[in-house]
Amino acid sequence: MLNLEYARDLVMTGALFGVVTFVWAGWGQERPPKGVIWRVLLVLLQVGGLVLAGFGIAGAIRHWDTPTTLASGSPALTGYIVVFWLEVAAIIALTIFYVRTDRTFLVAPTVLIIVGVHFVPLAFVFGQPLIMVAAILITAVGIVVLFLPREVAAPSFWCGILSGPVFLGIGTWALVAGLGALGS
Questions:
Q1: How far apart are alpha carbons 39 and 30 in whole angstroms?
Q2: Where are the transmembrane segments (predicted)?
Q3: pLDDT for the residue 1
Q4: Structural domain tally of the chain?
């Protein structure tokens, strides 16, 4: 399930997924269900994301001289840049469309779906099956959120509370495996 050839990329995946956990759980604070427990759970996800990001960034810095799929001038780097900017363009275009058509409730789940889908080509760019697992789970969460009750909580809450554990779990798995393969 894990390709350990470019272990630093796994460490960076852990760091990035930690940041993403923090962001999605933060967006989830928009309008959670009534009761303080939901805010506490979101904050715990955020703290977990920050801890993961901290260990991931420190590990990446410590092992920055090790090989990466995204070597300068490589086809993988080009593919990564193209996928990233396509993702950004799609998110911006659809967000503008939703705002103009008064359907802002669709922004968070749509962003989550786009993020999930963008992991599909990145799984091939990085040669990392774990990223395909993230693609499937995150895309599924985004789709499920479209059907969850908006009167109970904002779609951003559902996105944060459901995707946060996925990002945190996969990020932790990537970080531990990457650091283990690097011998630290």
A1: 10
A2: 6-24, 36-57, 77-98, 105-124, 130-148, 160-182
A3: 75
A4: 1
